[in-house]
Design a protein that fits this description.
The protein is of the alpha+beta class and about 180 residues long. The protein contains one helix and twelve strands. The protein has two domains: about 50 residues; about 110 residues, PCu(A)C copper chaperone (Immunoglobulin-like, Sandwich). Strands 3, 4, 5, 6, 7, 8, 9, 10, 11 and 12 form a ten-stranded mixed beta sheet that branches. The chain has a two-stranded antiparallel ribbon with strand order 1-2. The longest helix is centred in the first third of the chain and has 39 residues. It is globular and about 45 Å long. The termini are far apart.
């Protein structure tokens, strides 16, 4: 191996090319080792955070819809009924309902046989919200078309915390009123 001498600027110093390349290789190796150690530490911290998140008891609301239906409308208004079950450990709220059937879809409660619009319905943690005949319900005003028994009406439920849920409401007979088994 031949060694070449190189003169550097500044104070009079002579360094061999071999020595420079050895130092550069050593520095590069330390840099790669440091980066690898930093990446390993970051990966360990990320894995710990993920595992901690998985074992955490705070999972939030977990919503599921069942028992959905719409009695066949006999005018330009209709109502929708369903149950939203929350198996999560945090409460949520039903804040809105949208549908292509109507541009005017609201949520109502019935108190003392009087219907009134509300801004939201609470869905308790480990509980449910029942929208049923004679009580709270979805109200569709100024229907764009008359859905018939056997058809399905698409709706989207919007919540305060959870992602929207799309539901198909089967259109039932105008007098349809299923027996709700209470899950209290």
């Amino acid at each position: 191996m031949s060694r070449r001498l190189t003169r550097t600027a500044g104070p009079s110093r002579t360094t061999s090319t071999h020595a420079i390349s050895t130092r550069a290789a050593s520095t590069a190796h330390r840099s790669r080792t440091s980066r690898a150690a930093a990446l390993a530490a970051a990966a360990s911290l990320a894995a710990a955070a993920v595992l901690t998140g998985c074992s955490s008891s705070a999972s939030g609301p977990e919503l599921k819809v069942s028992g959905a239906f719409m009695p066949e409308p006999v005018s330009d208004m209709a109502a929708g009924f369903l149950t939203v079950e929350n198996t999560g450990d945090a409460a949520d709220k039903l804040t809105a309902v949208t549908s292509d059937l109507s541009d005017d879809v609201t949520i109502h409660e019935t108190v003392d046989q009087k219907m009134r619009e509300v801004k939201s319905f609470d869905i308790p943690a480990d509980g449910h919200l029942d929208l049923e005949r004679g009580g709270s319900h979805i109200m569709f005003m100024k229907l764009k078309k008359q859905p018939r028994q056997g058809e399905k009406v698409a709706v989207e439920l919007h919540f305060e915390k959870s992602d929207p849920i799309k539901v198909a409401l089967p259109v039932e007979a105008p007098n349809h009123n299923p027996q709700h088994a209470k899950k209290h």
